[in-house]
Every structure is written in C-alpha cells, then in structure tokens.
Amino acid sequence: MKLHEYQAKDILGKSGIRIPNGQLITTAEQITKVTKIINGPPWVIKAQVHAGGRGKGGGVRVAHYPYEVVTAAEDILGKRLVTPQTGKNGVAVNQVLIEEGVEIDREYYLSMIVDRSTAKPTMIFSPAGGMEIEEVAQESPELILKQHVDPEAGWMPYQGRNLVYKLDPPLSPAPARQLMAVMANIYRIFVTLDCSLVEINPLAITKEGKVMALDAKITIDDNALFRQKELLQLDDPKEKDPLESMAEKYRLNYIRLDGNIGAMVNGAGLAMATMDVIKLAGAEPANFLDVGGGASEEMITKGVEIILKDRRVKAILINIFGGILRCDVLARGVVAAAKKTNIRLPLIVRLEGTNVKEGRKILRDSELKFLVAKDLAEAAELVAKQISRKG
Ligand code: GDP
Ligand code: MN
Fold first, then answer.
1. For 329-356, what is each residue's pLDDT tens digit?
2. Architecture of 21-101 per CATH?
3. Is residue 88 exposed (0-12), middle (13-18) or buried (19+ Cβ within 10 Å)?
4. Closest Cα to atom 4 of ligand 1
5. What CATH fold (topology level) applies to the domain 241-390?
6. Which residues are catalytic?
7. Each residue's pLDDT tens digit, 229-274
8. Which residue minimizes the CA distance to atom 6 of ligand 1?
9. Which pLDDT value is given to residue 149?
C-alpha cells in the first residue's frame, strides 16, 4: 500500500524529522487561504499522486506571489498529470499540497528498503539527491552508498557515521548529527510500520544548515496490513487501477499489463509461464490473472468479467491445470460469466487435471463458442492467430 507524500511526511514529522509546514487542499476555494497560513514566499505547490517524477511532469511548482500559488494550484488540481512514471494517459490529481518553500544548499537521497539479494533491511544514501535514483545507479554507481542492517541488532550509530563521513565535501557537525538522527528514525519507521520502502528524495540541507525532508515516499507491505490496521485509513483507492481494486475484492491476483490477450490461469508460476508462451507466440498479454488454487465458481466468473471489462482485450486464453481447483468448477464459472456478459471475443481454453472430462463436457454442452487447445503451446498459437486474423 502506497502512501501520499503528505501522509508520509506526517509520519516523518511525528518521528522528529524536520518537514516543511504545509496544508493539503482538495478544492479551489481553499487555495487563497493557504498563503495566509503557510509561510512564504516562496511557496511550493505539489500534486499528491502515487507516481513519482512529478517535478519533471509539472506537478511540482514554485510560486513567489500569492496569485502565482492560486494559478499553479488551479492548474494542477482536478487535472491529469503525466510524469515519466505514469504512462501517457497520466493520473488524476485530486489533492494538492501547498508548502513553505525552503532555500536548498545541498540535496541528498536517503531510503530504507529490503535488499533481496542479501535479504536484509538496507539503508541507501547518496549525495546525488533530487535526481532519479535509478539514473544515478546507472550513470555513477559509486555515488550510491549502502549499509545492510542486521535486524537482530537494529540500526547502529556507527553505520550512520559510515555513510555521513564519506561525504566530500564533509558536512559540519550539526547537520551531520541531524542527518544521522534522520537515518536512525527512518529505520525505526521502516520496522515498526512494516514498510517495504521509506524514501526521502531530496533530503535537503537548507541554507540555514537544517536537515529537512522535502519529499517523502512510504510503501507499506500489503502482507503486514493485518497488523497495521490504523494505517488502512491512509489507503487511497482512487489511486488504484479500478480493475485491480475489483480483483482485490474477490481475492484474485490481477495485474494489468500492456497487451491485448486476456489471460486467466491458476497458480502464479503457471501464470508467468503462460505470459511467456503468449509472448513466444508473438502476442502480448493484457494482464496477469492468477485465480489461485481454491477458486470458487463465483471467483472464476468475476475473473472473466474483469478481463472483459478491459476494452483492449481482443482474445481470452484460459489455462487451467486442475488440482484443488477442479476443471468442472472452472467450466461452470466460465459458462456463467459468458451468460452474464455475452462474450463475443474468441475464447481459447486449455484444461488439464482433476475432473477434466466433466469440465470439457460442460463447455461443449454450453452455447459458448470456444477453441480447445490440447496443450499450452497450441493454446498460445491459437490466440496469436485470432489476433492476426483480426488485424
Ligand atoms: P518528485 O519529482 O515527484 O520526486 O517531487 P519532489 O518533491 O522531489 O520535487 C521535485 C524537486 O522540486 C525536488 O527535487 C527539489 O529540487 C524541488 N523542491 C521541492 N521542494 C522545494 C522547496 O521547498 N524549495 C526548493 N527550492 N525546491 C524544492
Ligand atoms: Mn522526489
């Protein structure tokens, strides 16, 4: 679960990290009042969306006069914002954060993540702040410093010194101490809130020598949400793909992709193999959909409905290896969905496993037109053929 910048900053602020004063607005009427409450000029106007790279997309503006705050905020609020991370359609901006602008002396990058290769919480620090960290990693990897943390011992003060004392030119003692305190703080936040990411970019040293978080990103591990119930109220469903939200409701594992072949599969491994085979046949999957091992007829029906709601889909491939999920249950779910939604798209089915005969019979006896494939390779070829026939 991703948090908005203003929510993440609120968490950082409460832990003692310095953040700019700011006010969240959701309607145009609120804008004019803000310049009276928030110190400025300058003011910084920031779109609150889950995508990064807002600066590059015009979602972060600096204003020097109150009327500029109004123009900038009106320009952003209620519009769609396109950044390098959103895709060309962009995302809707429903909330804008207006903050006091600060004078930046230096910008750093600081984050906590889990490093998968060492399976350890890891602090990443870079003097090349304010830029996309992926670019820094590619172009000047020597500017990225890391400290792996032993979760038993926690974050140790010497690890902070390891990072901060590498800075060249060095920091004077007061900001260096603040920087190390911020490191200890974000480690504590990372662990206590079950985060998969805590990122501050830029972490600024202001002209007055104060360390301040100018941007913040926090992602909570979804698997820990059962014990982070207070955080659930920070969830913003508007930021999610509507089909992904619908899938979540029915406990279907659905991820939207860029192609036009809808796929429904049971088991994540089989789903990934199916994506590969679709690509090998020269087509592109529109989604990843794993209905799981114990899917009910209703879940299958919902799965098909979700695929059909995606207008880009030109053909559907159902690839089921019946184990715990029996082929007859699958077939009944597909037939029910077909009745409900009046499928006109080519439907390619590959069934194997438990109750496969019953499953095939149910499909045959229905009025559904579908193509049965004897194996996965043939299924993918049939799908690709359907697409090319349609042009
Ligand atoms: P992002 O592009 O989505 O990561 O948005 P950021 O919040 O990081 O803003 C982009 C850039 O705007 C930052 O890297 C800063 O350089 C700049 N910025 C943000 N807040 C301030 C501020 O208070 N003062 C100044 N001068 N620049 C700011
Ligand atoms: Mn940023």
1. 989 988 988 888 888 888 999 999 999 9
2. 2-Layer Sandwich (3.30)
3. exposed
4. 53
5. Rossmann fold (3.40.50)
6. 109, 199
7. 999 999 998 888 889 889 988 989 999 998 999 999 998 999 999 9
8. 215
9. 98
Contact 199, 11 (CB under 8 A): no
> In the predicted model, is pLDDT for residue 50 greater than 80?
yes
User: Across all residues in the chain, what is the average pLDDT?
Assistant: 93
DSSP state of 172: P
Instruction: Report the CATH fold assignment for 1-19+103-239.
Output: D-amino Acid Aminotransferase; Chain A, domain 1 (3.30.470)
CA of 129 to the centre of ligand 2 (A): 9
262, two tokens: 């809808």
pLDDT at 307: 94
The Å distance, Cα 265 to ligand 1 centre, comes to 43
Q: What's the whole-model pTM score?
A: 0.83
Between the alpha carbon of residue 283 and those of residues 156, 277, 302, 374, the distances in Å are 51, 9, 24, 19
* Lookup result for tokens 């930021």: 239
Question: Helices marked H in 38-85 — which ranges?
Answer: 66-76
Span(s) in the chain for CATH 3.30.1490.20 = 21-101
Structure tokens at 241: 């793909």
Residue recorded with tokens 């991370």: 85
pLDDT for 391 equals 46
CB 314, CB 390: distance < 8 Å: yes
